[in-house]
Design goal:
Length: about 260
């Protein structure tokens, strides 16, 4: 089982357990049993008002916000809001995990390229060069090297140009996934901000729309995780030049190593 699939199975099981616990607590709250969990969504003023009301036969004289009133008096609203918030938090966690893995992968890709350049042939002018499958030399910045400059260089055991280019492509792909993750982060932040905008509070229809938005973002992150898995599962290119394409050495040029 892949790491991503195992992670998603565990995350789903945890989310299902949390939803069931919330539903059980909601039923207890509405039946008069205080579970102390509903208050985490209430403002400080609302919590004080509830505490004051419990100690007074006449109830509390404090004013609470419309949002707090909905949480206290509308179990359906509370359940919907709480569910969207927890979905949002779970998606944030999944995104952070993805970005951490991307950062590690990009760091490794940079190190691989650095190692390639360290082991490449150094031309007399200081540029690094790689030999392609046709025996033509190219610099690391994709400039063809004149044959007269490379005459006499033994390329045996050196990393091939195709291997070096594959490492550059890997880094480019990882950076593209990272850019897409930032776009998902922006979308997810918009959902979070709307959940925290309580003046006026989101309606039930708006909460349902935010739930759908969060679900779409979560799916997008799953897709990015799949892309990352695919990129990382590919064999790291490490192709070297064989004797078949090594050039005959001549006494008039000694390569700088």
């Amino acid at each position: 089982m892949s790491y991503l699939r195992e992670f998603n199975i565990i995350a789903k099981a945890q989310a299902d357990a949390i939803r069931q616990q919330n539903w059980d607590d909601l039923n207890r709250e509405t039946s008069g049993v205080n579970t102390t969990r509903m208050s985490r969504f209430l403002s400080e003023e609302a919590r004080d008002a509830l505490q004051e009301a419990k100690g007074s036969n006449n109830g509390s004289s404090r004013k609470i916000s419309t949002f707090d009133w909905l949480l206290i008096n509308d179990p359906g609203y509370q359940a919907l809001y709480q569910g969207v918030v927890e979905d949002n938090r779970a998606t944030q966690s999944k995104l952070l995990n993805l970005q951490d893995r991307l950062d590690d992968a990009i760091e490794t890709a940079h190190a691989d390229i650095k190692d390639s350049l360290k082991g490449a042939v150094t031309l007399p002018d200081g540029r690094k060069a790689f030999l392609d499958d046709n025996g033509v030399a190219w610099t690391s910045d994709n400039k063809r090297v004149d044959d007269a400059i490379t005459a006499g260089i033994d390329w045996t055991g050196r990393e091939s140009r195709s291997s070096y280019l594959a490492k550059l492509k890997r880094l480019q792909d990882l950076k593209a996934i990272k850019a897409d993750s930032h776009a998902a982060e922006q979308r997810l932040g918009d959902v979070t901000n709307k959940l925290q905008d309580r003046d006026p509070p989101p309606t039930k229809d708006q909460l349902k729309a935010l739930k759908d938005d969060n679900k779409a973002i979560d799916k997008q992150i799953d897709g990015l995780n799949d892309k990352l898995e695919s990129t990382l599962s590919q064999n790291k290119p490490d192709v070297t030049i064989s004797n078949d394409v090594s050039l005959i050495k001549t006494p008039n040029l000694v390569p700088t190593l």
